[in-house]
Amino acid sequence: MTTPSQTVGPFFGYALPYERGWELVPEDHAGAITVTGRVLDGAGEPVPDALLELWLGETGTRGALDRRGPGVSGFGRCPTAPDGGYRFRTARPATPYLALLVFARGLLRPVLTRVYLEDVPDPLLDSLEPALRATLVARAEGIGTYRFDVRLQGEGETAFLEF
Amino acid sequence: MTHPPYLSPAYRSTLLRAPSRPPLLLKADPDTIELTSPVFGHHEVAEHEADLTRQHSGEPLGERITVSGRILDAAGRPVRNTLVEIWQTNAAGRYAHPVDRHPAPLDPNFTGAGRCLTDDDGRYRFVTIKPGAYPWRNHHNAWRPAHIHFSVFGTAFTQRLVTQMYFPGDPLFPFDPIFQSVPDPAARERLIAAFDIDATEPEWALGYRFDVTLGRTPMEDS
Ligand SMILES: [Fe+2]
After folding, report:
1. B81, B123 in Cβ contact below 8 A?
2. Which residue among B29, B163, B164, B190 has its CA within the 20 to 30 Å range from the CA of B213?
3. Residues in domain Intradiol ring-cleavage dioxygenases (chain A) (predicted)?
4. pLDDT-based confidence at B7, cuts 50/70/90?
């Protein structure tokens, strides 16, 4: 019998984030990319107390929590800033997408989505009408930077997933 | 239904944050990365991180307790070497978080955050103090029942669970829209730890048991 989910609440900030949790690869890692954006609520206002977790599908050589030394971690965690902003520095994933979980006060369970780095033929993307499809595709901004906003509710609401 | 719905109007923060569309149901295939999960190494988590009463020079005030249990998958099998993180208020109901404005004292000897990895039996164990109830601004005279926040990974990203563990017999249960957001009363009961005299250590600490069962993963045969 599954244990029910409860909200992460507003007070996780001193417990769950860890040092350089957003850096899945060191700064000098060849081919590193940055995924950045904002989390917005149904009124289009920033969500300043969300926690994002990024998963690439493999733990990597760097470990999941350890940020010392070279190599790649497959897992990152980033709390949003007062403007709702977050960022991850990561290696390019083997898949066309990265998995993203968002927790927040007011979310009684997390929302799960995917960050596609390119709009490519893909079973999930191809099943969506264009407006919804667009919510899953990050926007390339200069070299190696991808913008991906999470809209929890309302206009441009992100496509959330379950399995 | 086990999990609370996203929109639970009595908990006001859900009004602008609950997605308006149900999540898209995706068919998983063996390459789906959401069916895997980060693996946490023992070198990444130190043993003393499971004892929240030894993080400062002195001992925290409050009722010393142990909280232990097992992390299980939907088939009841232990989830081994998985990361369990907890956070909570001090005995007075105050979080060591700058955003917490509750006029209750901070305890210089208590931060209230801990983590550990489960053993080969899926077992975890924390030493801490009993957290306090605290007020919040959701509605007039709103108080959260005492709880410990839990974060658990499991073997698939789809199993990832953040929840709250409550204490038996709390008089605030009927008034708490977060606890009450779980529609099924039987499922709600699964959020309440059990007092366990056998886990209680004489002359030292009361023992509470709290087992966590993670959701089914899509590739699991039911
Ligand atoms: Fe709390």
Report:
1. no
2. B29
3. 29-97
4. very high
- Amino acid identity of residue B177, one-letter, is P
- Could you tell me if B84 and B71 are in contact, meaning their C-beta atoms sit under 8 angstroms apart? yes
Which 82-141 residues of chain B touch chain A by CB within 8 A? 83, 85-87, 95-97, 99-100, 111-113
Q: Give the Cα separation of B210 and B222 in Å (integer).
A: 24
**What ipTM was predicted for this assembly?**
0.97
In tens, the pLDDT along B33-60 reads 999 999 999 999 999 999 999 999 999 9
Residues of A in contact with B187 (CB under 8 A): 1-2, 4
Are the C-beta atoms of residues A111 and A160 closer than 8 Å to each other? yes
Q: What is the pTM of this model?
A: 0.97
Nearest to A90 by CA among A145, A134, A160: A145
Query: Beta B206-209 vs B194-195: how paired, if at all?
Result: antiparallel
Give CA B63 to chain center in angstroms: 19
B83, containing H or E segment = strand B83-88
Q: What is residue B73's DSSP assignment?
A: -
Over range B146-173, report the average pLDDT: 98
Three-class HEC string of chain A: CCCCCCCCCCCHHHCCCCCCCCECCCCCCCCCEEEEEEEECCCCCECCCEEEEEEEEEEECCCCCCCCCCCCEEEEEEECCCCCEEEEEECCCCCCEEEEEEEECCCCCCEEEEEECCCCCCHHHHCCCHHHHHCCECEECCCCEEECCEECCCCCCCCCEEC
Q: pLDDT digits over B93-152, tens only?
A: 999 998 999 999 999 999 999 999 999 999 999 999 999 999 999 999 999 999 999 999
Name the percent of chain A lying above pLDDT 70. 100
Residue carrying structure tokens 């089914």: B216
Residue of B nearest to A57 (CA): B33
